[in-house]
Design a protein that fits this description.
This is Superoxide dismutase [Cu-Zn], chloroplastic. Homotetramer. It is an enzyme of class 1 (oxidoreductase). Destroys radicals which are normally produced within the cells and which are toxic to biological systems. The protein has 2 domains: 40 residues, no CATH class; 162 residues, Sandwich (Immunoglobulin-like), CATH 2.60.40. The protein has 2 helices and 11 strands. β4 and β5 form a beta hairpin.
Length: 229
């Protein structure tokens, strides 16, 4: 965890009410005399700046016998490692994406389109132009089990809290919070197939199974594991 000390100003009227300041000379946080405020142990439980490794797990379920588990790990501000194990698939490659909504109330169709905060076209995970949720393909073996490890710089786990002039962003723009992983029926053509859907979905076909994150705290119990993984 990061240090539990917050800097605050002894001349705090403008800091607490930035809109009341002179608009031609907005206050700068560094211009105030600063004192150190140490938060008690009880307060630390309520206000914590997170700056350490994070883990998350999503359980994928579908209308057929396709199921799986996705485990995510991020160290500090580095890339996220996505470990996938899905069973019940037909042998061969299957598109695997992060979709924009974590809503599965109407099945996988409720998860919306690929997560695409930058409004780009679909592409391969290593492509410069791609959706943030484009994670390529996973390949199922003859038993229908697909296992993969994906390291991606556009998918983030961190919950970052900034305590300053009334600005409290709860997560980065590409966070997995509120989103869902989806495994598809067909191979993702990575935007190169020339099909009318290539630049939107990779022409990866129907949605076989999906799941949103369950928790992103450090695991204290064994993660759920489908048979075969």
């Amino acid at each position: 965890m990061a240090a539990h000390t917050i800097l605050y100003s002894t001349t705090s009227q403008s800091l607490l009410h930035p809109l009341r300041s002179n608009p031609n000379h907005p206050p700068r946080f560094s211009s105030f005399p600063r004192q150190s405020l140490t938060i008690s142990s009880s307060a630390r439980k309520r206000l914590t700046v997170v700056a350490a490794a994070k883990n998350a797990v999503a359980v994928l379920k579908g209308t057929s016998n396709v199921e799986g588990v996705v485990t995510l790990t991020q160290e500090d501000d580095g890339p996220t490692t996505v470990k996938v194990c899905i069973t019940g698939l037909s042998p061969g490659p299957h598109g695997f994406h992060l979709h924009e909504f974590g809503d599965t109330t109407n099945g996988c169709i409720s998860t919306g389109a690929h997560f695409n905060p930058n409004k780009l076209t679909h592409g391969a995970p290593e492509a410069e132009i791609r959706h943030a949720g484009d994670l390529g393909n996973i390949v199922a073996n003859a038993e229908g089990v697909a296992e993969a490890t994906i390291v991606d710089k556009q998918v983030f786990l961190f919950l970052i809290v900034c305590v300053c002039t009334q600005v409290i962003p709860l997560s980065g723009p590409n966070s997995v919070v509120g989103r869902a992983f989806v495994v598809h029926e067909l191979e993702d053509d990575l935007g190169l197939g020339g099909h009318e859907l290539s630049l939107t979905t990779g022409n990866a076909g129907g949605r076989l199974a999906c799941g949103s994150y369950l928790t992103w705290t450090v695991f204290r119990q064994s993660r759920p594991t489908p048979v075969g993984c």
